[in-house]
Amino acid sequence: xxxxxxxTFEEPEGGVALTARLAAFREELARKKLTGFVVPRADQQQNxxxxxxxxxxxxxxxxxxxxxxxxxxxxxxxxxxxxxxxLQAAKQVDTRAWTVESLVEPPPERWLEAHLKDGDRxxxxxxxxxxxxxxxxxxxxxxxxxxxxxVDGNPVDAVWTERPEPPLGQVSIHGLEFSGESESAKLERxxxxxxxxxxxxxxxxxxxxxxxTFNIRGADVSxxxxxxxxxxxxxxxxxxIFIDARKLSNSARDHLEQTAQVAEPAELAPALQALARxxxxxxxxxxxxxxxxxxxxxxxxxxxxxxxxxxxxxxAVKNATEIEGTRTAHRRDAVALARFLAFIDREAPNGSLxxxxxxxxxxxxxxxxxxxKDVSFPTISGTGPNGAIVHYRVTRKSNRRxxxxxxxxxxxxxxYQDGTTDVTRTIAIGEPSAEMRDRFTRVLRGHIAIxxxxxxxxATGAQLDTLARQFLWQAGLDFEHGTGHGVGSYxxxxxxxxxxxxxxxxxxxRGMILSNEPGYYKTDGFGIRIENLELVVEKTIDGAEKPMNxxxxxxLAPIDRRLIDLDMLSRKELAWLDAYHARVRAEVRPHLxxxxxxxxxxxxxxxxx
Length: 609
What we know:
The protein is 36% helix and 19% strand. The protein is an alpha+beta fold.
């Protein structure tokens, strides 16, 4: 029906191939005189979307989630995942060869303490772990009487005979009409942050930070316009960008050379060592900098300063150009969403559509805008029990037909040059049950509580997180993921450092964009999530004694009225929903054809008790 452009639906490899890989890997460890090895789901920069050449965890275990870790010992092996991926991992890995364990509570270090034996040698690749992660592993090994051993050359690569080549996506220039600030102005602000840190230089180990600082984008990984690269920014003098020259056109190189030196990635280590030999204090991002970088600086006599990357916070606070761009992107995206939701309402009740059909249809409607660069992550299209898998990714094998009585959970986003979108809607197919309506309304009330929140300037996401859960808690329910994440400007759809979760300790600042996405998941039953993106804005309150902030909702898409139990909504909640739907109707309706306008009118009509 529709042609898919950015997403495939093939089942991950499994069975005999994975069994053989694990056996070959253990043989390689024995050759290296190791009794175990840690395989993270990571590239050298801890990117969410790693290039195919760095998907070692998926190749070895079959688990394809975006966060995870494996530990292989001589006679046992474990895959560690967080709450989003518990169901997925159990389906993807061979549980005869691997146990599925918690990545969070308890953490993998507790498992290591219990399973390592005195004299064991546990290997790790220092380019794939941060220094703090290495320190935690070293402590666990010491408690067990084992040794943690850094290795040169990853043993997975030694047995991965068909490993893809590293990517060479072409670099593009992200012009001032989208970025809103020149590279030189950004570098001046970064140097101001370096002065506060008393650092002589900063390593940009996060490619997102490099892209933002130098106003470039790339095509090295799926779904994020990322040019894999590093940069070294000294307090005095020109910075250096370390990037494969084959990615650079003449114009891209000219753009970069206006503010920086351009060097090959292999030159990063010698440059760091030369700087460190002078005794320089060099700042490193504790979240993305590989332990290998800390070792290089330490061993050359420098002073590694590990901490938060100052660029992350600068990047998270969007300027006026980026804010207007994301508003434009969301209005454009809203037209595609309205066409898609009308299509689902028209076609799904007759049982003719599958989960894959929904993915392909939504991408096609977005492609019709003429501005789509990519989807911002693989679309989550789950109906019935598949909707209960938080980060479900449909394959041709798991593909389920959408049937009356189901809920369809569809979580998707788009990359446009002027902004990044992320939106989830839960759609009733036919008549929903009373339980579905109860759970949906509790989720909706939490969503509205976040959208309507007013909070002091400097409040954190952890202080807001409870607002989204309160109505679920009242029924003894909860959801096992954060309420919201930061979103980039034509960069990562999952951007730090701010988030709305119990771990969200970064103060929320005006100009940040965060998601608002509470949910509920009944295992083997159905899934519910409602997600809009929110912009942190100033709120004027008469008599306020301190600066106050709130949210401006960016996403414009109807929320399914059929799933709402009106008796559960307060008067203010109902007023918020009606006002939101009126805004959706006013901004989106003029861009739709007649039949879709009629559908939108019905989908956004005021609610009456």
